[in-house]
User: What shape does this take?
Amino acid sequence: MIIALGMGIGETIRFDKLRYQRIIIMTDADVDGEHIETLILTFFYRHLPDIIKEGFLYIAQPPLYKVQIGKNIHYAYSDAEKDQIIRSNGKSNKTQADDLAKAIGEEPKQSPPEETKKGVSIQRYKGLGEMNPDQLWETTMNPANRILKQVTVEDAEEADATFTMLMGDEVPPRKHFIQNNAKVATLDV
Amino acid sequence: MTSLMAEIGKLQQTEITGEMKRAYLDYAMSVIVSRALPDVRDGLKPVHRRILFAMHELNLRHTSKYSKSAKIVGEVMGKYHPHGDMPIYDALVRLAQDFSMRYPLIDGQGNFGSMDGDPPAAMRYTEARMATISDEMLTDIEKETVTFISNFDATITEPTFLPARLPNLLLMGSEGIAVGMATKIPPHNLGEVIDAISYMIKKIKVLEKPSFSVVSDVTIDELLGFIKGPDFPTAGAIYDISEIKNVYATGKGRILIRGKAEIEDIGQGKSAIIITQLPYQVNKALLVARIAELVKEKKMEGISDLRDESDRHGIRIVVELKRDSSPKRVLNNLFKYTSLQTVFPANIVALVDSTPLTLNLKTILEEYIKHRYLIVKKRSEFELAQAKARLHILEGLKIAVDNLDAVIKTIRQSKTQEDAKENLMKKFKLSDLQATAILDLQLRRLAALEQQKIEDEYLMVKETIAYLEDLLGNPSKILKVIKDECDYLKEKFTDERRTRVYKGKVGEFSEEDLIPNEPTVITLTTTGYIKRQSLTSFRTQQRGGKGVKGMTTKEEDGIQNIRYCMTHDNILFFTNKGKVYQTKAYEIDESSRASKGTAAVNLINIESDEKIESFITYNKGDEFKYIFLATRNGTVKKTDKNEFENIRKSGIVAIKLDRGDELVWSNPTTGNDDIFVYTRNGKCIRFPEKLVRPLGRATRGVRGIKLSKDDLVVGMDVVRKGENPQLLTIMEKGYGKKTKVLEFNAQSRGGMGVKIAEVTAKTGKVASSQVIPHNCKEVIITSRKGLVVRLDINSIPQLSRATQGVILMRFSKENDGVAAITCVE
Assistant: This one.
């Protein structure tokens, strides 16, 4: 990565040699992908902070779900969006919803009937490898459709403290943080 | 630049702190809740649960055929576990390894790896099915006992936990590293855990309100009465009860584990350390490599050869020792510098309601009982609903049977099926289901006997309903069911504990807590084997019997010394070189009558050319002041017993010896006793011990008896003041007698003494002579070939000094003769 960026690292760093002005982190859309994302962010923050300061660092947003209704394919980037797609597209096929729910083993309690319409197939993308190249282009890479997140630093001090807490050597503060915020996490089984 | 920016597409800003926290938290919580930590209810991590559930769905029970591991892994990965195939296979393999799992949940066919760290065969080669015990994890899963959720792509469902009749968290143990926390739980013995649960159930209170919970006032100490400590599949030994208790009280602690190693004599004056058990999770190949490395780097001395002789029957690492090395010291170094001794850093963390908690033993067991309570309740509710549904149908059928002709008539008069159903419903006040059931009746069910069956079933279902309703309304009855099911588990699966538990720390011997203080017999052979037997292994015979096999000795070995003591007594071993070593009686392994005992080198750090000649047993209550020693050449010495208080493991000097002399006898004295010294040629001298002044440990003694040429001392005894016991004298060819002590007058020390027996060719020389203790009832005579006879002391005649005695023991083998005698209560 250092070679690709061209600006060196550590003592030999030369920012003017940087070859790219958009560096996009694209990781799997599961929790392991998020973990890798934190590691890469830490690398940039600790070793190549200028890239972040200049606003050259971006995070790509691969879709979480492919929702196929009949022949129409929709991509959802969050659970809410997925539900929304199903709700707005699936009304015509409301018959036998319960049978289907049974057939695919959904427990009625956990999944409201809207989610399981006839002809709706949902694929959860856990890895980028699950997508065909053209699908990846369509959803994540094509500037016409994609959403990029530009990484910014608002409060350098707070950012520094966060990195030290999450990636530092001391476990207790990390444990404390996890316990305090356990409820807001999005779980992936 | 602007043209480029135009292409960037939709852009959002994200603050790095928030982005980091969000991503990190998602990852951390997912790993904690659904990857690395086991659930307290079934003790399984998601991957294990999914493997078992997938095998359950594939119907791979212990009675079915093995299935390729690859098929199971594929099933798990495709249906439930969207992760790599290798982690799934690794998890499956661990469940099948008998050295990883105290009770393997999977029955594997093929190479599943070894303790040497060899990898298992690839999953396309190995096969697997569930072990018998795994049934107990899944029983009742179809009875709506556990919550099911959608799998990752919402196509099927999977259980969030298993009904787990087994207290699996404790049985299987667990190990996992999550984020910011980790877990490490040792495996346990099923019988012990069940006993603890059964005890707890008796004391438990079930609270339904405000929220369901179970509470008990059982203490950790009470539970420790049942669960002695972890029980590893690889056996070994664990130490230090206070640390073990700590683990169970707080969920954290460091348990010291040692492998099992014994020192064996391998002939030619050499010995070897034989390792037969390793601490849990120690890689044998690495251990052997480590020992070799230490020897090569000269960090460990005294090892001449190292071999791994392990085979399919078990572990056997042979560490051959150099002639001049001290086996005990080498063994201690092995413990110190290699993984023959390891620490198990227990950290009992598990998920309780999806929250990671550090758990103590009591909470784990309470959670188990709570879990089982809910499972039994839900199962009963399910069965009740089913029974009620069946009852409803049966009620309908009964009505049909009771009004058979009318029913048939109604059906015949109806035009269509639907018609018939409606008519039935109207006419007989039946429900839709009942009417359908009646219409589905086969004609043969109308036979008289079949009608009776309906009646019988009706009564049976009613009974079931009554039972279930009673059960559901009565928490104590549910607890009883849990206990009964636990008892069933114990009966079916319990086995012996493998790991030995020592209450003391390593080096501190306080096994006394564990071992009852009871009479025992300690035997020492001429080649230095020491053996401890319970008194019951000898039986009383008539005088002149040939004896029973008392001890299997090695060739040309014989009995040197026998003493009767209590298991908690201290033993001081005196060697021919004049040194003294200390041990406790119970440290000598108790063995059966015909075993040869333990080599002395296993007990104490003696040198290879050193030999134990005698030993003293004593306990704190004994009132004696001095230790009185006698040598082969007639030198005697007495030393204050306090000088023997701090005896190093490597022994200390008890007497300085002249060249060619050997220290052979030792006895405790009070300071006012009389000393008796006997010789082979039948002489005996009696003198007051006051004539011998106390000397320090590392000194020579003084002359005790003047020996004629060819004569040697064969015994030394102490007679307390005012006591007038009898002397028991046994000759080499089995002749013996009792003589009154009064027949011997006190002389000055260093004299020749007087005759104690008439030594002739018929009797042989004096083999042994000793004072008969006042509480002695029986005497055990041991022959050089290891035969033992136990006689009533009263059957031996009392004769005067200069007599031959009567025959007490006959010898069938040539060259056999009396070796030693001992008196017992």
